[in-house]
Structures are given as structure tokens and as C-alpha cells.
Amino acid sequence: MKTHLFSGSCFTKTALLVSLLYLMSSLFSAQPSTYATSEAHTVSAPCLGCSIQNPQNAVGNNLTNYSSLKMGIGLLGKVEKTLIFPATSLQKLAIHIGTGNGELTAALLSAATIETMNGNVSNGDSRIIDSQILTINAGPGDNGVIQLRPSKSYDRVKISLNAGILSLNRELRIYYAYQSAFVTPCAAILPGDPYLYYPFDGNNEEIIRNLDLYPSSPPNSFQNSLVCGKALIIPSSLSEILESEHLPMNYEKTISFWASTTSGLTLGIADTEIDITLDSIKVRAFGPGYQVSKRVPVYTSTSLHHYSITVLPTFRTPIEKTLCEQQGGTSYDCSVPTKETISIYMDGVKWSSFPLIIQPDISAPEPDDQSIILNAFPYSSTIIDELLVYDEVLPDEVLKNLPCAYNLPQNCPSGNPAPLVSAMKTTPAENILTLSPNPTKGRIILDGNIPIAGTEIFVNNTFGKEVFRKKLNSKTVDLPATLPEGIYLMTLQTQDGKVYTHKIILTK
Hints:
Layout: H1 8-28, E1 33-35, E2 38-44, E3 51-53, E4 67-70, E5 78-89, E6 92-99, E7 113-118, E8 121-122, E9 127-128, E10 134-136, E11 143-148, E12 154-162, E13 171-183, E14 189-191, E15 196-198, E16 214-215, E17 221-224, E18 230-234, E19 241-243, E20 253-261, E21 264-269, E22 272-277, E23 280-287, E24 290-297, E25 305-314, H2 318-326, E26 339-346, E27 349-357, E28 372-376, E29 382-390, H3 396-401, E30 433-436, E31 443-448, E32 456-461, E33 466-471, E34 476-478, E35 486-493, E36 499-506
């Protein structure tokens, strides 16, 4: 239960925290997000003082409240919290966390783990919460965000704390968790969060960072697209080049687009260039004093295809970087990748994956520009549409399903459009609890296969006050007629100690 008592300084800190969380939410969730709708948690013995407070507060999108996971004294105890989403997904996952009385650091969570699950089956991706997935805010260092790109479909995420990882009287706060999606004008649900997006709907505008393409000669033409809205027709001359302004892009990236060409297309994204012809795809990597490339035989024909190219760089270790600088290389020279692993997908099928070994000339100047370049080969009729760029390598499972998000079954490996967010759960038939109807006028039916014998339910209002409690002997729950309409939190605790929480809406 929360106490809403604020002194001036406490109120200021709280307001600042809410503002920071709102800003982080805006940065990481510019597109519609799906929030966790229920939760489950367990505290295993022996662990004196281990607890989970306000477990329901991690559900939904309220920025101002949180659930607290507290560790006490014990060598074997564990606290686990599972946040459950309404459907399976391959979308990016974000969890906003904080501490109550100290600075949040990755070292503080050095033995805390996180994993995704499909129902009660682990996806086998359990990992320590470290600086690779934890971003600390730029203000007071007591909150941050965990970001994951799961490689398998999931509908829940579990955070586990082992005894001893948090000092006595410290806590881990979980504010909320959400899956981020990116929805295009044709309602295709794509992976969030892209770095760049060119829809080419009658113009060359990039809608995320305003890095517009501009023609070097006559204006471009557009036509109705088979994919989404309009499509860009690239002029059929080497002199007709579309180029953006400076693009501060990471080496790691995923480039995704639809295209057809009768001769050839060149697409350059920062240090990566892609050449598509009727019988091959060639990928080049550029840097100070080097240019490496590899050609992959692929029969593209003149039909419309979906292409995805990923670039995964390998960098020098700190010791190797020091040796490079001692041998005369600049800090920039010695910071560029030594290898880039390229993967090529066409219509969701992985055609090739190969390394480009990079041996730069450290005496060469640094490149002064990273641009986007579109270029058609001579005498070519070339069309491109829906260009997306991510500053990360999307998982293989996501890339296989990416063209399926559009209503073009001929370009989907399965032959049937299947968006990256499933319409239904694929939860295994155990430990499932659903409530209906919701909203309700007072009667609630419990469904699923949670054991009812010995189960007790608690109903709290949004201030944390308990307003109803009952031991269950059936799957029907009648709320008191005296309860006013509004939002309530129903918690069900089974005889074996497992806890499930759902939000309910009471109407009159």
C-alpha cells in the first residue's frame, strides 16, 4: 500500500522521476505499445525478509506506481516475478526499473536474471541483467530501462533475484513492461523501433529523423505500390542519384525494403552498400582506406521481392585496440570493425551469411560523410518501397516473418500472411487464468486450469486498499454490490503459494 505524503524535496524528486520515465517512454515507445496485463510471482524459502510488495503495480502503463522486489537474508532464497502479455509476440521488450534508496547500477544486478517464455515454457534465453541490456537514465541514477530483442515468440518475461545480490534494505522496483511495435500506414505491424523509415508515399521524406533524400537532377516519380501506398521509381541513369544528408549510423544494422528492377539497383546506407541485379546480390563495406565486398548468386527476376540485409560487426578487444594505436593508428582507425558478418534474406528466406574481413589502411583519412544513396543501373526500370533501417541486427525468426507482415502471400515463406504479433496466445495448457466478462457488472467467471481448492482472492482498489476477500469454492465470484464502479485489482493466491493478478473494470 502506498503512502501519498510528500515534502517539498520528496515531491520534486518524485515529479522528476515521473518526467524522466515519461521521456524514456517517449524515446523507446514512439509507436503503439502493448503493456503487460497480468502478473505472477513467487518467493522461495529460506529467505528471511524476502518479499514482493504491490505486485499488481507492475501491470498496465501507470508511470507513477511500481512493484517492489526485496531481498533479505538467506543464501538459497529467490524472488521471481513474471509479467504476462495478452498475446505472443516477436516484438522488442522494454521494462522500466529502479531502486528505492540508492543508485541503480548494472553491478547491483550482477546476479539478477531475465528470460522470456511462451506460456510456462522458457525460451532458453535466460541472461544476467548487465550494461548491454540496461540503460541508466541521465538524471538521478535510481531508474533505467531493460531492453531485449527476443529471438523467439514470447508472451511473458520473468525476472529472478537470488539472495545476496541486493544489499539489505535495498529493493528493485518494476514500474511497467511493454512490447513496442511499429505500425505503417497500410497497417503492417513491424518490429519496433526502426532507426529510419522511408514510406515513399509521394515524396522522399523520412518520417523518424527527417533525413530526406534529394534528387541530383529532375524530380522523382511515384506510382501506386503493391506493398503500401506509393512506391518510388528510381530514374534509369547513373547520373540520377538520390542522396541524404549526413547520417550518424551504427555499424550494426538491418536494412529492409521492397524492390524490383529490370537491370540493377544500388542502395547505400552509411558504410554499407547493396547492389541487386537479376542474378546476384553484392554487399560492400566501406571505411578509411578499405573497400571489401562479396557477390552472392541469387535469381531475383524482375518481380517484386522483399530484401533484408544484416550487418554484424566484430571489433578489436581493448588490448588489440591499444596495440593498434601503438602501431600508429588513430583512435578512429582502431575503433572500426575488423570483420562484418553479412546475412542476406529474400522474401524471408536466408540465402547466405558470410564474413567480410576488413584490413583498413590506417594512413587513410577518416570518411567525412555517411549518407543514404539510391541509384539505378543504366537502362533500368527500378522501383523501391517501404525502406526501413534498424540500428541492430534483428533475430533470424523476425527476419523470416518480416515480409509476412504485408498482405502479399506470394512473398511470405509460409504462403500465408502472418504478422509479427499473433492474434492468439499459444500458451501451454497449464497455469492459465482468465477472467470474464471484463468490464463486469459484479459477477466474474474464472477460467483456465488454476486449481480452485484452497484458493483465496483479494480485491484492492487503485490506492492499494483491500475492499474484498473470499475463499473460493467455485469459479464464480460475485463482488459486493456496495463497491462503486471503477478499476480494481484482483489477486488470486493458490494453495501452493502462487499468485496471479488481473485488473478488472466494474460498471453499474
